[in-house]
Amino acid sequence: MPAPADEFFLDTRRVRAAFDAAAATFDSAAAVHTEIRARLLERLDLVRIDPAVVVDLGAGTGHATRALQGRYSRAQVIALDVSPAMLHQARRQQRLLRRFQRVAGDAQRLPLRDGSADLVFSNLMLQWCDNPDDVFRETRRVLRTGGLLTFTSLGPDSLRELRAAWTTIDTRTHVHRFIDMHDLGDALLRAGFAEPVMDTERLTVTYAGLDPLLAELRRSGSTNLALGRRRGLTGAAAGKRFRQAYEAARGESAWSLTLEVIYGHAWGTAAGRKLREPQSEAVVPLQQIGRRHSTDIK
């Protein structure tokens, strides 16, 4: 008999429905997703790999899929996502003469053959899966010997401002549980991956106010789907107290959200190839990374 679900349990069906609903607005609210995707793609410069088959796991609207297709021009590239509506939007990233496959499927039960991929790329998908062990076991299964998994996820310091404000209101679950970098590294080893390299950085994203902040989360599908969430609409009084708590905590500073971004790389073989290891932690506010990476999202 399976263990009973806890308050942080994420039902794949609810995750699928949330991203189906957000598919049409996702790209307009994906500045953070875009920034982290670019950083993960840049890390592939550190790796010597010539994949025949690449899987973009949690492909969403297909921007990373298109970039991977451009990077590995001879590879077959597959966009795989739990949300059919997101994959429908991904058709816009197709090139006229070179198209990628779009496959709907659950990362915890991949619809791919054993040993069928050389590279699995996954940007900000893992935190939407209830059990990362299942994801890593499935990813290891579909990777060929010597294949590479590279991914990002959110760590436990993410959205701390939202979490702190809600704890002044009630004891319900308002923010998802995010898994620690070291626990994810252990899960990679349990799944049979070799030489995992893990590191983190913290990004601070600022907004013009609380309403734009919450609207971006909603338009990108990043809503509270945990089993322990409050059912139904939040009452006006509770919503007002939440705003007051957030306002009091920020003081004179900007409306901001903290994101702890976890980067992971691991090889699908006991004789894997090492990557150049980055620092164990890098604190990089978005305002320090130039014009292309604006920190103000309005």
Quaternary: single chain
Shape assignment: globular
SSE string: HHEHEHEEHEHHEHHEEE
Question: What share of the residues lie within helices?
Answer: 25-40%
Helical segment tally?
9
Biggest beta sheet attributes: 9 strands, mixed
Question: What is the third-level CATH name, the topology?
Answer: Rossmann fold
- CATH C-level label: Alpha Beta
Beta-strand percentage range: 15-25%
Per CATH, the architecture is: 3-Layer(aba) Sandwich
Integer tally of domains: 1
Mean pLDDT: 84
Residue stretches low in confidence (pLDDT < 50, at least 5 long) are 270-298
What is the straight-line distance between the termini?
Answer: 48 Å
- CATH-wise, what's the superfamily? Vaccinia Virus protein VP39
Structural class, from secondary structure content?
Answer: alpha/beta
The rounded Rg comes to 19 Å
Number of strands: 9
Write the layout of secondary structure elements.
Blueprint: H1 12-22, H2 31-43, E1 53-57, H3 63-71, E2 76-81, H4 84-90, E3 101-104, E4 117-123, H5 132-142, E5 143-154, H6 160-167, H7 181-190, E6 194-207, H8 210-219, H9 236-250, E7 255-267, E8 281-283, E9 296-297
Parallel strand pairs: 1-2, 1-4, 2-3, 4-5, 6-8, 6-9
Antiparallel strand pairs: 5-7, 6-7
Model description:
The structure is a single chain. With 298 residues, the chain is of the alpha/beta class. It has a single domain, classed as Vaccinia Virus protein VP39 (Rossmann fold, 3-Layer(aba) Sandwich). The chain is 32% helix and 22% strand. It has nine helices and nine strands. Strands 1, 2, 3, 4, 5, 6, 7, 8 and 9 form a nine-stranded mixed beta sheet that branches. α5 crosses α7. The longest helix has 15 residues. The C terminus is likely disordered.
